[in-house]
Amino acid sequence: NKEQSITITSSTNLTDEEVEKMRKEAEANKEEDEKKKEQVDLKNEAESLIFQTEKTLKDIKDKVSDDEKEECEDAIKDLRKALEDEDFDEIKEKKDALQEKAMALATKLYESAAKERQEAQEDDEDDEKPKKKSKKKDDDVEEADIEED
Question: CA–CA separation, 80 vs 20, rounded Å?
Fold first, then answer.
């Protein structure tokens, strides 16, 4: 029946005033920290959107008009300029504009792919139709009895 006890005491030499001062500084910087985080997130989203749009443009170069490609490339340039200037209102505006153009490209790409699939499916059906007709010709067999003398 042995008994042990532990006592924990703070080993810092900070006074209550110093602790309170640190707490107030943290609260004061909270808004600024949140604003910086939002700005960093916005820049990351913009850079990611630029990358994705450039990749999409490379993948679908033959499937969209030169005007559409040029519009996207101009929007990318505008967004890059806003990123360099670190004008966050401008970044948001240009990011939204590029996103709209990228969505239009993606929609066109999707429609083009769906059209190609539909045409391929119709071609497959056309290829199968003659085979079915030829089977019917083979099915026109008349039954006959063989008589032996």
Answer: 44
CB burial readout 6-17, b (16+ within 10 A) else e? eeeeeeeeeeee
Rounded distance between C-alpha atoms, residue 29 and residue 41, angstroms: 18
pLDDT per position in the chain (149 positions), as tens?
A: 788 777 767 666 778 888 888 888 888 888 888 899 999 999 999 999 999 989 888 877 777 788 888 888 999 999 999 999 988 899 999 999 999 988 988 888 788 788 888 888 887 776 665 554 444 555 677 777 777 76
DSSP letters for 48-106: HHHHHHHHHHHHTTTTS-HHHHHHHHHHHHHHHHHHHHT-HHHHHHHHHHHHHHHHHHH
Distances (CA, A) of 100 to 48, 72, 74, 104, 110: 15, 10, 13, 6, 15
- Can you give the pTM of this predicted structure? 0.61
Q: How many CB atoms lie within 10 A of CB 72?
A: 20
Which contacts (CB < 8 Å, 24+ apart) does range 65-68 have?
68/101, 68/104, 68/105, 68/108
